[in-house]
Amino acid sequence: MVVWLKLEDGEVVRLVDRWSPSIFIGTDAKSDFDVPLQTLRSDFEWTRVVHRRERVSDPAESEVVEAKLKDAKKAQRVAGRIERLGPFGTFRLYNADVPPAQSYLYERDLFPLAFCEVGQSGDRLRWELMDDVWAYDYALPKLRKVTLEVEVAREGKLPRLTDKIRSISLEGDDGKVTIDGSSEADKIIGLTRAVREADPDFVLTSDGDTFLFPYLIRRAEANGVALTLDRDGTAMKAPTKEGTSYFSYGQIHYKPSAMKLYGRVHIDTGTSFAYSEAGFEGLFELSRICRMPLHTSSRASIGKALSSLQFYHASKMGLLVPWKPTLAEHFKDRNELLMADRGGFIFEPKVGVHENVGELDFHALYPNIMLRKNISAETVRCPCCPDSRNRVPELGWNVCEKRDGIVPLAIEIIVEKRLRYKELKAKASSDTDRDRYNARQAALKWLGVTTFGYLGFNNAKFGRIDAHIAVCAWDRKILIDTARIAERRGFGVMHGIVDSLWLKKEGADEGDYLELKAEIERETGFAMSFEGIYKWVAFLSSKAEPGLPVLNRYFGVYRTGGLKVRGIEARRHDTPPAFVECQMEVLGVLAKADTIAEAKAKIPECVETFLGHAGALARRETPASELAFTTNLSKAPEEYSTMMTVQRAALSQLAGEGAKLHAGEGIRYVVTDYKGRDSRRATPLDMIKDEVDYDAARYIRLLAETCSSVLEPFDAACTAAGLMSRYEASRSGALV
Amino acid sequence: MGRTIPSFRIAEAQESAEWRSFRKALPRSDRAAFDDMLSSARLYTSASSAAVRTSRFEGMIMAIVFHHYKTLAQSMGAVSEMKKEESR
User: Fold this and answer.
1) CB–CB of A335 and B46 under 8 A?
2) What Å distances lie between residue A586 and A590, A608, A619, B12, CA to CA?
3) Who among A334, A348, A456 is closest to B46 (CB)?
4) Which residues of chain B are at the A interface, by a Cβ-Cβ cutoff of 8 Å?
5) Residues 6+ apart with CB under 8 A from A405
6) Which residues lie below 8 Å from residue A42, measured CB to CB, with a gap of 6+?
């Protein structure tokens, strides 16, 4: 294992620890062990019989064989060969797909950026941790960061690997350096030299995994020079495998091959979820808590990070990580399944605009349910506590009282640290501190959100649907109990969804809400936060079926002046930026109103705002780049039907320029001829210039729909058609 | 893993789709009323889900009947108010 250390004086050293990971093999008959141990003898450094818990639900440890691998990279290949030595199920394989770097951190009880001392004895390292993963104010080494940008001398409309480099720039704390050179080879050599001199710890790129590094490597090869950006002087090589498309939460995503550097960390800001959501501070917190190397955590989904945290706890409690989990759900008859298989509770919103509505939210309700009620795959309906006092509401299932589940054990740090960071953020005396704590709590928030989904995810190593069901049952009980408490105190429920409630009582002030909050906390045992009282809040109805409520589409203004917007166009990632700007401008006008009547009086001003933006579109003053729709490909480009939708029109043009796209990759396009029939219906953003002739009429119609979402609740005349009429009238007025 | 039973929101849409032939046989002028009636069930989706019935139709019909009852009771109340006004 190669370890890079940053010393207190800033020097960076590379150390090697003689270590390789183990896989574990379980069988029902001990004599079966002989076959794999003999057949694959050459792949193992050594083997031994150890005692471990095989399944999370096992009450005790059993005998398994630990096989220390000679080559860490072959773990899954070796596991596959063992599995094929007998009928499925003969050999149970464990820890085969735990990344070796993570296994190393778990075994040594280390984490990235930990402050520690290390000693060397022979070819082994001895670690002394002088840091604590639970620490809130930990010291980080001074890290050097540079941003790498490359300008491509495009020959076509899209950049290609065969295009030459126009310029390279490297921007760090000391300013921006442009790498000059008469030839392309000089520029690459200059880049290598500049990186060596700047000696950064982090190299930030935009699209470094998908394009920039593969491109630079190809240009270096074409010029017969080496691209050496690694700290140990290794020349970079093109990735040997393609990226992968995967399905998550109803959407296809694409993950490109990682372009990693030895001794430095490359962060592709375009694909890093952790960095884009929570910046460096969030990424560091995530890496520390989940014990994942920074390269890995910057590219990992939050689910992968959560898995790593669970693997760490598994390793500490002698529990093995199944290569192919086979933990089945408990049997349920039809009636029990109907009763059990339901989600969290929802009170349908009362459609319309309401004044003086207060909002109360439970703090991280689902993670807290798991933590406080000990909900985990192995604890729900455990065989050891049939008479447990901890029972799942409605279903009556017993929950273990004898041992803590692996899920609650893993999430404790997420829940506790996030709460503490939020407190620290509220008390922070400087913007720097506030931003730091906010970034850390944001990273932990995403981890918390994922914990629940992972209970019911079929690839989760320690998931089981029964635990997922138990959390939902608790949620329904808590939300219904909360509503009854509120009603007892004279509040009406305007809307409720999973962990948030919107309540109203004539004349209620903040004190009334805080008293209610205290009573709810006392009776349910779960902490809440009072978000505030809205001057007015609009719960929207379905666009397809007016009058019917839709969940999580609302906007409102707190008495303190803050605007809260959920589910409408301005919050959607696929909405063109110009539409977001216009809708937020309209909301800004409405937000000045203290009452619904005042908001209604501001409708003419809002309509003028719409007309102003529509006029800019008609005159094509709005840059085309502000009008791009964003969409993720739900399948491979060749799988799309032949019907020329606007999305396919953009795809067809990208394919024509040689772009290779995968399912899950995002494309951005501008509608250029909506009513057309060929590929000119839309143009990919990468292929346009701002003066492109976009379909202004189509955009004005869509803008009217966007504005009507926030105006119609106040004025029934402000439908999309109504706004279009106003626009047409303003045009004819202008002509007159 | 994942959910086996569709949420009641999805079940309502499935049930409504199964009544397409009924809707098709109605005079065109009646279809909007039929659509409105089925949609009214969605005002009480959470309650229908909480009722946990093996037939999704039971939950929907209870919601529709309840909405009908509420509407009728409100209308009756309004009528009696109007009558009181008239008699004054």
Assistant:
1) no
2) 6, 9, 21, 36
3) A348
4) 1-5, 7-8, 39, 42-46, 49-50, 52-54
5) A370, A374, A375, A376, A377, A378, A379, A467
6) A70
Q: State the ipTM, two decimals.
A: 0.83
Give B44's contacts in chain A (Cβ within 8 Å): 348
Instruction: Choose which CATH entry (3.40.50.10490, 2.30.30.60, 3.60.70.12, 1.10.132.60) describes domain A603-735.
Output: 1.10.132.60
**Under CATH, what is the fold of the domain A346-567?**
Palm domain of DNA polymerase (3.90.1600)
3-state helix, strand, coil in chain A (%, to 5): 40, 20, 35
Chain A residue at shortest CA distance from B42: A548
- Please write down the HEC assignment for all residues of A446-494: HHHHHHHHHHCCCCCCCCCHHHHHHHHHHHHHHHHHHHHHHHHCCCEEE
User: Beta strand A265-268 with A202-205: parallel, antiparallel or unpaired?
Assistant: parallel
Q: Is A356 left (phi over 0), alpha (psi -120 to 50) or beta?
A: left
Using the Cβ of A464 and the Cβ atoms of chain B, whether some distance falls under 8 Å is answered with yes
DSSP secondary structure of B37-80: HHHHGGGGHHHHHHH--SSHHHHHHHHHHHHHHHHHHHHHHHHH
Kindly list the domain boundaries of chain A, sorted by start residue.
Answer: 2-129, 145-269, 346-567, 603-735
Instruction: Quote the pLDDT of residue A690.
Output: 54
Task: Enumerate the residues of chain B whose CB falls inside 8 A of the CB of residue A479.
Answer: none
Low-confidence winner among A200-209, A247-256, A611-620, A634-643 (lowest mean pLDDT): A247-256
pLDDT, residue A736, reads 42
What count of CB pairs under 8 Å joins A to B? 51
Buried-state track A506-523, b at ≥16 Cβ within 10 A, e below 16: eebeeebbeebbeebbee
Name A579's Cβ contacts closer than 8 Å, sequence gap at least 6: A569, A570, A702, A703, A706
Nearest CB among A345, A468, A548 relative to B46 is that of A345
Distance from CA of B40 to the nearest CA of A (A): 8
Taking each helix axis from N to C end, the angle separating A302-316 and A406-427, rounded to the nearest 10 degrees, works out to 120
The Cα of B79 is separated from the nearest Cα of chain A by a number of Å equal to 24
Could you tell me if A709 and A687 are in contact, meaning their C-beta atoms sit under 8 angstroms apart? no
- How distant is the alpha carbon of residue A81 from its chain centre? 34
Which 3 state secondary structure label does DSSP give A120? strand
The CA distance from A15 to A221, in Å, is 30
How far does the CA of residue B25 sit from the closest CA of chain A (Å)? 22
Say whether A348 and B43 touch across the interface (CB within 8 A): yes
Q: Three-class SS of residue A709?
A: helix
**For A351, which residue in chain B has the nearest alpha carbon?**
B43
Domain formed by A2-129, architecture: 2-Layer Sandwich (3.30)
Q: What is the CATH superfamily name and number for domain A145-269?
A: Ribonuclease H-like superfamily/Ribonuclease H (3.30.420.10)
Best B34, B43, B46, B54 member to test A by mutation, with max A CBs in 10 Å, is B46
Q: Could you report the per-residue pLDDT of A3-59, keeping only the tens digit for each?
A: 999 999 999 999 999 999 999 999 998 888 888 888 888 999 999 999 999 999 998
- In angstroms, rounded to a whole number, what is the distance separating the alpha carbons of residues A122 and A108? 17
Tell me, what DSSP letter sits at residue A351?
-
Which residue's structure tokens are 């030839």? Answer: A183
The mean pLDDT value for A453-474 works out to 89
Check A342 against B7: CB less than 8 A apart: yes
Same fold, A145-269 and A603-735: no
Residue count of chain A, please give it: 736
Burial class (CB in 10 A: 0-12, 13-18, 19+), A432: exposed
CA distance A456 to B4: 11
Contact B43 A548 (CB under 8 A): yes
What is the phi/psi pair of residue A6, to 5°? -105, 120
